[in-house]
Inverse folding.
């Protein structure tokens, strides 16, 4: 971009505008490099990678999320191997000496036999209840059931919430009105009433049914949040740009709007999943969810709440697992949200940023040279 | 040169419900006629709220025209069906004012520029990335920027990305909605030069909407001056800006600061505010602020009449062509 070329440009439109200060600015702009944002020095490592791989890589760099993912994986493996799998006709026996349904003799009032110094697991490490059930077997079985319910409910509620919320927000008008009234109805109908009716009709439903059932009722918050986000994003210029570029409605929703709502979706979905553990406990307590002799974490807690002062271990262990599951899911969600956000600066050292900045400057200089 | 796009008596009205429940109609654009030839650069100027952006947005169907007709190469595209709209958008693209919000923050530059190609099924795994690199180079950005995200770029670079996206389908017409008003002067110059180069090299036509008279003078051949939803004057850019016929154009030109301390300008100060677009004045819309207004202005709407030399004006009391120019150079 030379000054001569500029003059050629302006004589094109017939202006001998030499006295214009803009042209002076043009002159000084000649050779002037564009200033780069501080932000442009990020993400050296993402060069040339697909979005999926960038997200994975950034997620693995999120320390808290990685630790939580490992802990959750240990919990899952422990729960499913120790008690085996007994669902959908598949039966695999676990490695633990008791199953959740066995009733051995009560030893020493059911006190836990686990001791750390000297380390010894004993015969009932987490104790026994009044009848004699082994608490480790009970808690592991409960964890299995609760995990299945939580993940199913999370998937179902996220799917319904995101679908309805984005359709309502994007299309607006009567579609929005109908879908939002549907949401309002779902919110105002008493949750435990539906649970009671469905519980009575189906009776002792398995975790799969329970998870889908909970998911089908817990999507309302997410639907409203997604709708709100979509309403705001729909007015943004990049959505209009996509329209001018010829993108279809589905393409605009899936490629332009929803990726920008990932933060809200993940946060809301993980919160719903942790809340589901407690909701499941409540409806199991009322007798509409998982029923004895099968068990879930919520059911164990509600069954033994009277024993809190005399046999606290009946309370501590299932409680600990509920907390661990809820916490790890939330931290993993946090890590996922950060990984999906391209503006995150996590994971670059100061020196890497400086090198990155110099590289950007060189590239810009080269481009400015070749463009003119 | 053949006629590319023609807008006849375009009206875009927005209805708004007030607190009282009464419907108010905002006449953002109220009878605009324009035409643009191939490889021509048309400027639309006017103050904020005069409907220039709405006109541009209606041309690319971001707003629905209430009345009027838009035709492209003779074919009516006022209310196109989905297929006609796609065909139209393949040839007419839009560049947005704010380069920050017109790029999706979650997409890489490559996916942003490739979006029109993908939407039109012209994306190919092998040739696609090469095409993106070619577009980046055409707007003066290095190829390695393709895998970066919009937040990593400065305003000028982002606007170039926006232009590269608009060029992806090899359009014949670009509608630019204040493409440089969010940029500082030195970067403005780079973007404007880029546009002029593209026009020379590719035979592109563009409609540039701006409130900056110097920008418009620099890059366009012909301009249309808008006031309160109507065109009040059109003609070759230099002619109109140096010898305005319509009092409003004269006031607009005189409001621009002189570009040199040796230049002397008579400042025309307009009285009052821009009237509401929901209740425009009768007759000539400018009469409430015009120092030359008489009774006839309140009663008869002045038509946009050609006066020779490719110029037209809508005024009952135009400034004479022979009158001393507003833009005077006093010899040092």
């Amino acid at each position: 971009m030379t000054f001569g070329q500029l003059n050629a440009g302006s004589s094109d439109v017939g202006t001998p505008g030499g006295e214009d200060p803009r042209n002076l600015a043009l002159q000084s702009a000649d050779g002037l490099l564009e200033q780069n944002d501080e932000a442009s020095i990020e993400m050296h490592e993402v060069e040339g990678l697909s979005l999926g791989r960038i997200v994975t890589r950034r997620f693995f760099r999120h320390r808290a999320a990685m630790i939580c993912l490992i802990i959750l994986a240990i919990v899952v493996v422990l729960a499913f191997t120790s008690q085996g799998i007994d669902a959908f006709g598949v039966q695999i026996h676990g490695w633990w000496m008791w199953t959740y349904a066995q009733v051995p003799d009560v030893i020493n009032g059911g006190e836990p036999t686990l001791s750390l110094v000297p380390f010894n697991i004993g015969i009932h490490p987490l104790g026994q209840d009044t009848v004699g059930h082994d608490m480790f077997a009970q808690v592991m079985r409960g964890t299995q059931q609760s995990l299945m319910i939580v993940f199913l409910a999370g998937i179902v509620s996220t799917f319904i919430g995101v679908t309805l919320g984005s359709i309502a927000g994007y299309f607006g008008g009567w579609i929005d009105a109908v879908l939002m009234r549907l949401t309002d109805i779902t919110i105002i109908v008493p949750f435990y009433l539906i649970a009671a009716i469905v519980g009575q009709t189906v009776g002792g439903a398995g975790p799969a049914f329970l998870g889908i059932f909970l998911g089908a009722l817990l999507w309302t918050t997410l639907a409203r949040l997604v709708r709100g986000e979509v309403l705001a994003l729909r007015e943004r210029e990049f959505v209009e740009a996509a329209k001018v570029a010829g993108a279809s409605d589905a393409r605009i929703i899936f490629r332009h709007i929803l990726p920008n709502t990932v933060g809200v979706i993940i946060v809301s979905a993980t919160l719903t999943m942790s809340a589901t553990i407690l909701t499941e406990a409540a409806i199991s307590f009322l007798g509409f969810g998982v029923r004895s002799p099968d068990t879930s974490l919520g059911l164990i807690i509600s069954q033994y709440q009277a024993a809190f002062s005399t046999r606290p271990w009946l309370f501590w262990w299932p409680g600990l697992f509920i907390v661990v599951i809820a916490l790890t899911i939330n931290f993993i969600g946090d890590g996922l949200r950060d990984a999906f956000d391209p503006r995150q600066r996590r994971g670059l050292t100061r020196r890497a940023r400086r090198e990155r900045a110099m590289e950007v400057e060189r590239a810009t200089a080269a481009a400015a040279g070749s463009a003119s | 040169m053949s006629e590319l796009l023609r807008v006849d008596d375009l009206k875009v009205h927005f209805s708004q419900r007030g607190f009282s429940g009464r419907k108010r109609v905002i006449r953002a654009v109220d009878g605009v006629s324009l035409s643009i030839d191939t490889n021509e650069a048309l400027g639309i100027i006017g103050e904020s709220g005069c409907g220039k952006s709405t006109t541009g947005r209606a041309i690319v169907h971001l707003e629905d025209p209430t009345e009027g007709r838009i035709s492209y190469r003779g074919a009516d595209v006022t209310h196109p069906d989905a297929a006609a709209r796609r065909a139209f958008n393949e040839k007419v693209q839009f560049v947005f004012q704010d380069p920050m919000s017109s790029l999706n923050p979650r997409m890489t530059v490559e996916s942003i520029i490739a979006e029109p190609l993908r939407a039109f099924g012209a994306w190919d795994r092998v040739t696609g990335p090469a095409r993106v690199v070619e577009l980046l180079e055409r707007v003066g950005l290095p190829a390695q920027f393709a895998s970066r995200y919009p937040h990593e770029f400065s305003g000028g670079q982002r606007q170039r990305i926006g232009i590269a996206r608009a060029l992806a389908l090899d359009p014949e017409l670009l509608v630019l909605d204040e493409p440089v008003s969010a940029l500082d002067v030195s970067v403005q110059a780079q973007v404007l030069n880029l546009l002029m180069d593209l026009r020379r090299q590719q035979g592109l036509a563009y409609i540039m909407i701006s409130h900056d008279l110097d920008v418009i003078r620099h890059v366009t051949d012909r301009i249309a001056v808008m006031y309160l939803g109507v065109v009040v004057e059109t003609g070759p850019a230099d002619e109109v800006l140096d010898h305005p016929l319509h009092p409003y154009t004269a006031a607009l030109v005189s409001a621009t600061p002189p570009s040199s301390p040796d230049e002397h300008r008579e400042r025309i100060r307009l009285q009052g505010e821009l009237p509401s677009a929901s209740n425009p004045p009768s007759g000539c819309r400018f009469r409430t602020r015009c120092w030359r207004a008489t009774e006839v202005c309140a009663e008869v709407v002045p038509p946009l009449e050609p006066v020779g030399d490719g110029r037209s004006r809508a005024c009952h009391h135009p400034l004479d062509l022979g009158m001393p120019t507003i833009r005077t150079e006093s010899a040092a």
